[in-house]
Design brief:
Blueprint (H helix, E strand, L loop, with lengths): L8 H11 L7 H9 L6 H9 L6 H12 L3 H13 L9 H6 L2 H15 L15 H15 L15 H13 L4 H10 L3 H12 L9 H12 L4 H12 L7 H13 L3 H13 L9 H13 L3 H13 L3 H13 L3 H13 L3 H11 L9 H14 L10 H13 L1
Helix pairs in contact: 1-3, 1-7, 2-5, 4-8, 7-8, 9-10, 10-11, 11-12, 12-13, 13-14, 14-15, 15-16, 16-17, 17-18, 18-19, 19-20, 20-21, 21-22
Length: 407
Amino acid sequence: MNNNNCISLGNVINVIKKISNNNSAMQTEIFCSIFGVNDINATTVNNYCIGIRAIGLEYKNIFENSYNNNQLLSNILSIISILDNKIYSINDESLDLINNNTKLSMVIDELIKIAEIDEHIENIDIFKKDNNYDSIKEILYYAILVNKQPIYTQDINIKFDKYELNEYMKVKLYWGESYISSLLELSSKNNVYACAELGSLEFDGEVSGKVDFNNAYNYYLKAANKNHPKACWMIANLILTNRVNYDFEVMWTYLNKSIKLGSAAGYNTLGLCYLRGITKDKKVNKEKAKYNFKIASELGYAFAFNNLGKMYEDENDIEEAIKYYKISADMNNSWALNKMGEYYRKNDDLKRAYIYYSKAIECPIKERNKYAYYNLAKYYYEQGYEPLNIEKNEKLANEYYKIFYNM
């Protein structure tokens, strides 16, 4: 069943985001308001909201307790705060505020429209109460405790050419030693998938044995002009990283095209452009940067969590920064794992720091953060670390130092 056609937690959150005055409201913020909790892993929220995972018993119990013990008033008031982008404190007038809130009424109306096409709901009158408070209570009760959270299939915002895809998959699945040659032949026919892959292969130096960014750009450009999301983003990335000649207009055009095609990397890069003033007006806009990082993070892009963490760290909000670094580290991002190691080392938790550094060098080789090798080398070279039974090992330390300096 399509997740757009049912009363699910994801749709409740999406409708609140849509109607909210607070354009930067995150899924995590709305989730925490609904359940009355202070914090939760953003990846977990995302999984709950798109139906990859059923809502955990812990959160079902939290909601059921608040529902049965009339503690839900405070949670719904928090939702009103998000909708109006204004902080409300609970008092004797809170119930009236909820019942008379226009935006909450709009949320309820939108969700009732969804309920009308939800084939599992026999009687939508259960949501049509005399006031906002009772209506949203019943909608939340159904979305969290009754609905089984159908598996969601995300629509891909591109059109597939069946013939081109079939020809590409033949090469991908069946060709061996002549694989790249076969891709080259397909690319000569302007096959979008072959062009995109050859762009990646040229970027890594796997066609001629030498990295060729200009060839990578040309292949990506062919694919981008046929609406390949990654290729559009890579055009922007190659320009921004000065791997090819700088052309702002081309970069800006293809970066925004990648976003229209649903690229999480595109949103993250647009955030970086706003953060660095690489825009048409050449002005830094931290709010727009943060907004785009948050969108990318909600799409599960690890680097966006890193960038949000760095923004909060620059604002000296270390506690908030660590929350984002931790999420990225949980996604096995090597840079974030090293960052968490640094955090614990600076707080004299050398045992936990060592664990994070070790995880950082276990990531895929092209993704490893070189500073994790440097930090591990210090454990082995300077004195070892007795609580972890790490003995001084200058040979291993030198090996790690060598890797660090050569990366």
